[in-house]
Design brief:
By secondary structure, this protein is of the alpha/beta class. It contains eight helices and eight strands. Helix 4 (119-135) crosses helix 5. The protein is globular. It starts with a strand and ends with a strand.
């Protein structure tokens, strides 16, 4: 049986206070172990190209929100709006060229009925369920996530190995379909040391922007609008979709396969 590697990162927070974000996005990307080196080489080549063209240090972490809002260390580069757009385009096209799939789960906090809704735990469960469905018993997978939330994520992953209720297709009840193809506990790695966690961060943040403009009908934040517009966000989404990187089966009722809960 083949083994896949799955990487996770998020945008927003899993809190429910007035200071919290009004939605939370958990993004995963997964690839066969056989494709890992090829995908890694594509990103490494991109980083070398960006270093040579724009001076973007190859070892500098790509944190998309900070990049677009001109936070340090990116402010020190003094890039123009056009150069920043070219860098984002290059990242998008490189991801589009990789052999991998992406799942995006959005927890819409404005739709809560239950005040005890477990945001991170549910987002992780729904995401793993989609990877499990895609594996269809043909490959197993190991999950690697950014540092910071490992304890609740491990607890959730362990729990759904034994009890994973799924809505029955044939009745109004639920059936138990334990997760069987996930191997080991969830492992953590610093995002600065992983191109693939940084890609999850990149995709997750663009899903966040798309959700704001398409579902919330809100304007882009001012500092981001200084760099890109709504059309740019939509073109990133279209590129990821047309390249086949988005797992559209994650939610066949959504044009980009976005999994949005609560329903």
């Amino acid at each position: 049986m083949k083994t896949y590697l799955a990487y996770f990162d998020e945008t927003g927070d899993d809190g429910v206070t007035t200071a919290s974000s009004d939605h939370f996005i958990l993004t995963s990307l997964y690839m066969s172990a056989e494709s890992w080196q090829q995908n890694f080489n594509l990103m490494r080549a991109l980083r070398k190209e960006l270093r040579d063209k724009y001076g973007f240090h190859a070892t500098e972490e790509m944190h998309t929100k900070h990049f677009l809002t001109d936070k340090n260390p990116y402010r020190n580069y003094k890039w123009s709006r056009e150069i920043k757009q070219e860098i984002i385009k290059a990242f998008t096209l490189t991801i589009a060229a990789m052999d991998l799939k992406i799942v995006n789960v959005i927890i819409d906090k404005k739709k809560f009925i239950d005040g005890n809704y477990h945001i991170l735990e549910n987002a992780l469960k729904y995401n793993i369920q989609r990877i499990e469905n895609d594996s269809d018993g043909e490959w197993n997978y190991l999950i690697i996530t950014d540092e910071g939330r490992i304890a609740p994520m491990r607890k959730t992953a362990r729990a759904i190995r034994a009890y994973n209720p799924i809505q029955s297709k044939y009745s109004y009840g639920f059936v138990n379909q334990p997760i069987t193809n996930m191997i080991e506990d969830i492992l953590e790695k610093n995002s600065s040391e992983s191109y693939f966690i940084q890609i999850c961060d990149f995709v997750s943040f663009f899903i966040h922007l798309y959700f704001k403009i398409e579902y919330r009908q809100e304007d882009l934040p001012r500092r981001i609008a200084n760099v890109i517009d709504e059309g740019f966000v939509r073109r990133v989404m279209v590129t990821l979709k047309k390249s086949g990187r988005l797992n559209l089966k994650a939610n066949e009722n959504n044009p980009y396969g976005l999994v949005i809960y609560p329903k």
